[in-house]
């Protein structure tokens, strides 16, 4: 019984940039025609290079900004800006930098109570405080710290506060934008465990944004790969990691360093430039760096095909027998 | 002779709450052409110890060391002028926060040209050509235009690469890279690491790499030092460290890697790093160590011999047969 919490259809977001004294303004398609679903109790990870539009996607679904194209539904309800204030409490976001995203002049108790104060004014002060205490227990912070300021906590504890604040309004979906990138390994494992616990207990859906594929491999159920604003591959975690179909996914996996000095390297070396987001080539956006690119790739933009592991590529990697024998990448 | 040799380095800061021991008796040595990685808990003194070598700590820092030499020259006793000739030329550093080390008032091109003007005898044209070459080396597209950009006009990853270009501009003999690739994604990270290891091989540059990415350590480093609460707690060749850690902290750190996870819940290290007021008398890791006993809590541990990874521990793990513990 899969329960779809979030369903996005052809979501897009354009930005107008530049337009200085001597240049014409250009359009950046930060997110272009992206479609996906997230189920209750499941984690969809979004991976891809810096600047590929992951955070922009997060801002769209958390109603920080409106899409310039496409639409999405939340538990079946179509989300339009008029309904934002009612629906916002269902989706909350946790950012990468726990320091930058917390108000340093507020005590932990106030930080946790704030979302209730704004969105649930009917709840009285005493009950609010009780809920804040409960949340501290839930995210593994000692209740006696309720009057401390953020700077008195370690990085991991601050990220717990940020997670707690996001959960105060009992959202159905949590968007996690690089939630552990700023933390060191021992704290990272605490936060990942916390997120897994909370997901189980509260049946939360996660949209998990990360460039660390070893973390993604550990937490994700499904993986979506983005490149220059477009989704280029989507599938179950096991399929994407063991049999990537898009050459970019394969390059990304091969470039992720393995924490094993004796492991085989086999890293794919990409040559060619990452195209400017202002000037995406007409064909496949990955073609300038792809070892398989042919004229067709430079001419026609591939669309996401069907099936359980859709890919946007004219010449996908073919894990199926019989289809091998195409060009292979340079490795090091 | 070692390129860099530091013995028993300590750094203290006078803070509101009392005297903070940020670095506590650390030894560091790097040979020419060697890559040493320094890993460890956030706040364990990795950056501060390297800033001490660079002479870049604020005056509030109390620095002591039994030895601090570069290429046989004593960095402590040399004049400020002599030291400036070395720092920035023979030793250079990629700083952890690129935005705070680039000057926002000057274009990145001007900043690199200035470094070249101070430390090389290239003429104007030569400096410009070298700038372009450096930007190409670090993979910044469209270098002519990017050289004229101010730091705030470039993305985080772009600034980080500009910093790297600046740090290698004068062909240093020792490069200290403090989290050089955190703002970069894996395909560009791979390119930067190839560049740095390439320079190390071609020019015999020594490289100190500070990072919390154990994947990067495994793929690039030769020797690894592990720090905890201002102390070096272990040091081994990279393959041995990943295979047989001798200090319980190293073992716990490696166990927390998601790649090594055998179940959904990852192993964690309970508790937090000791602060100013709960610094234990004995081993600094003892409050979080699952093997600790009374001796660990009360007696500072010895440093074990090299065969036991120089582990600062009373009861090192996986002691090779026939080895005597200290
Ligand atoms: N407000 C804005 N105005 C103009 N361009 C923007 C704006 N926000 C984002 N962009 C552009 O949109 C693209 C996608 O940016 P986004 O921040 O979503 O990337 P990201 O995948 O989150 O990257 P990172 O991994 O570095 O966080 C980039 O090219 C960025 O420069
Ligand atoms: N100027 C300063 N004044 C007072 N304390 C300082 C100063 N600079 C650093 N410290 C303290 O010294 C300790 C060591 O800091 P350092 O920056 O070396 O840690 P690190 O190991 O590099 O950590 P990270 O992995 O988070 O970068 C920390 O407790 C830090 O707060
Ligand atoms: Mg982002
Ligand atoms: Mg540091």
Automatic annotation (TrEMBL), chain A:
CDD domains the record matches: ABC_NikE_OppD_transporters (cd03257)
Record GO terms (molecular function): ATP binding; ATP hydrolysis activity
Residue ranges occupied by any ABC transporter domain in the UniProt entry: 6-253
A single BP term in Gene Ontology: transmembrane transport
Key words of the record: ATP-binding, Nucleotide-binding, Transport
Keyword RNA-binding tagged: no
Record-linked InterPro entries: AAA+_ATPase, ABC_transp_ATP-bind, ABC_transporter-like_ATP-bd, ABC_transporter-like_CS, Oligopep_ABC_C, P-loop_NTPase
Region annotation (Disordered) ranges: 299-332
SMART domains (UniProt xref): AAA
Gene Ontology CC annotations of this record: plasma membrane
PROSITE patterns in UniProt: ABC_TRANSPORTER_1, ABC_TRANSPORTER_2
Annotated localization: Cell inner membrane
Bilayer topology: Peripheral membrane protein
NCBIfam families: oligo_HPY, PRK11308.1
Protein name (record): Dipeptide transport system ATP-binding protein
UniProtKB/TrEMBL annotation, chain B:
Keyword Transcription part of the UniProt annotation: no
Protein name, UniProt field: Dipeptide transport system ATP-binding protein
Any one of the GO BP annotations: peptide transport
GO cellular component: plasma membrane
Coarse class of the protein's main subcellular location: membrane
Keywords assigned: ATP-binding, Cell membrane, Membrane, Nucleotide-binding, Transport
One term of GO molecular function: ATP binding
Domain of life of the organism encoding this protein: Bacteria
Pfam families (alphabetical): ABC_tran (PF00005), oligo_HPY (PF08352)
SMART domains according to UniProt: AAA
NCBIfam families the record matches: oligo_HPY
Compartments reported by the entry: Cell inner membrane
Domain ABC transporter: residue ranges: 6-254
Bilayer topology term: Peripheral membrane protein
Family that this chain belongs to: Belongs to the ABC transporter superfamily.
């Amino acid at each position: 019984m899969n329960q779809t919490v979030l369903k996005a259809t052809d979501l897009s977001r354009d930005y107008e940039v530049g337009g200085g004294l001597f240049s014409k303004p250009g359009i950046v398609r930060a997110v272009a025609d992206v479609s996906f679903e997230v189920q209750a109790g499941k984690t969809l990870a979004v991976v891809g290079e810096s600047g590929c539009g992951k955070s922009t996607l997060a801002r769209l679904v958390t109603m920080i900004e409106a899409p310039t194209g496409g639409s999405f539904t939340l538990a079946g309800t179509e989300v339009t800006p008029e309904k934002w204030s009612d629906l916002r409490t269902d989706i909350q976001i946790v950012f990468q930098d726990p320091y930058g995203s917390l108000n340093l002049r507020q005590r932990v108790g106030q930080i946790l109570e704030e979302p209730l104060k704004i969105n649930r004014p009917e709840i009285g002060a005493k009950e609010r405080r009780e809920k804040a205490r409960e949340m501290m227990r839930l995210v593994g912070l000692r209740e006696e710290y309720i009057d401390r300021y953020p700077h008195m906590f370690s990085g991991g504890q601050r990220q717990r506060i940020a997670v707690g604040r996001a959960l105060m309004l009992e959202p159905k979906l949590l968007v996690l934008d690089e939630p552990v990138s700023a933390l060191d390994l021992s704290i990272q494992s605490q936060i990942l465990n916390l997120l897994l616990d909370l997901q189980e207990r509260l049946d939360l859906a996660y949209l998990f944004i990360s460039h660390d594929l070893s973390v993604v491999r550990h937490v994700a159920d499904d993986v979506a790969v983005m490149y220059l604003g477009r989704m280029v591959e989507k599938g179950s975690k096991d399929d994407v990691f063991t049999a990537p179909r898009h050459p970019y996914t394969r390059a990304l996996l091969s470039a992720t360093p393995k924490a094993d000095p004796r492991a085989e390297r086999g890293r794919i070396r990409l040559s060619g430039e990452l195209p400017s987001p202002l000037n995406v080539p007409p064909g496949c956006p990955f073609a300038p760096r792809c070892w398989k690119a042919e004229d067709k790739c430079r001419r026609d933009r591939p669309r996401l095909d069907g099936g359980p592991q859709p890919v946007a590529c004219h010449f996908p990697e073919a894990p199926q027998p019989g289809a091998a024998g195409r060009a292979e990448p340079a490795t090091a | 002779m070692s390129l860099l040799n530091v013995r028993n380095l300590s750094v203290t800061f006078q803070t509101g709450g009392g005297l903070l021991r940020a670095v506590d008796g650390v030894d560091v040595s790097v040979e020419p052409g060697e890559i040493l990685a320094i890993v460890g808990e956030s706040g364990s003194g990795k950056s501060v110890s390297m800033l001490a070598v660079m002479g870049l700590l604020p005056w509030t820092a109390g620095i002591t060391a039994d030895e601090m030499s570069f290429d046989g020259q004593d960095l402590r006793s040399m004049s400020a002028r002599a030291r400036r000739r070395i720092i920035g030329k023979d030793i250079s550093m990629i700083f952890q926060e690129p935005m705070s080390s680039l000057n926002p008032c000057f274009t990145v091109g001007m900043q690199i040209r200035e470094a070249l003007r101070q430390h090389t005898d290239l003429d104007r044209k030569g400096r410009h050509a070298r700038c372009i070459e450096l930007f190409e080396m670090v993979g910044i597209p469209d270098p002519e235009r990017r050289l004229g950009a101010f730091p705030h006009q470039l993305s985080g990853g772009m600034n980080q690469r500009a910093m790297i270009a600046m740090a290698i501009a004068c062909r240093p003999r020792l490069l200290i890279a403090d989290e050089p690739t955190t703002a970069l994604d894996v395909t560009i990270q791979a390119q930067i690491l190839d560049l740095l290891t390439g320079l190390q091989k071609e020019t015999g540059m020594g490289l100190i790499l500070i990072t919390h990415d154990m994947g990067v350590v495994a793929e690039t480093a030769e020797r690894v030092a592990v720090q905890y609460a201002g102390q070096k707690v272990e040091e081994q060749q990279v393959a041995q460290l990943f295979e047989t850690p001798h200090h319980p902290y190293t073992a716990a750190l490696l166990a927390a890697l998601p790649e090594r996870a055998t179940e959904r819940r990852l192993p964690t290290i309970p508790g937090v790093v000791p602060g100013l007021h709960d610094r234990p008398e004995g081993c600094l890791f003892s409050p979080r160590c699952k093997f600790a006993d009374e001796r660990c809590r009360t007696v500072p541990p010895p440093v074990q011999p090299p065969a036991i990874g120089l582990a600062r521990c009373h009861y090192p793990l996986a002691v090779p047969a026939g080895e005597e513990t200290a």
